[in-house]
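=== RUN LOG ===
request id: a7f3
mode: sequence -> structure
chains: 1
length: 103
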Amino acid sequence: MRKNKKYTGEFKEKVVKEYLSGQHGELNTVAKIYDVRNVSQLKKWIKKYRGDPTSLYRENRGRKKLSSKANKSREELLQEQVDYLTMENTILKKWVQLIKEKH
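=== RESULT ===
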């Protein structure tokens, strides 16, 4: 069983530019020269490169992070919590006011 090979952004960009330059001809030839196992992978890199060249450097495998808590400071996290609790408190006060008005 083969393990998936991981390619760097620099490598991907180099291979795509090599193909787009037209020096080696077909996708198959470029894939063999650079030992890219799957021609369809090379096609995906080319499509990404044409859309946004920097996308070749981003890792898209695995689960996405739900929030960026690791990047936030303690103060930012505490401020978010204060804001949430303030909003919740305001909603509850309005709810109590509506109940009082109905009775």
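=== NOTES ===
DSSP finds four helices and no strands in the chain.
Residues 72-102 form one domain.
=== END ===
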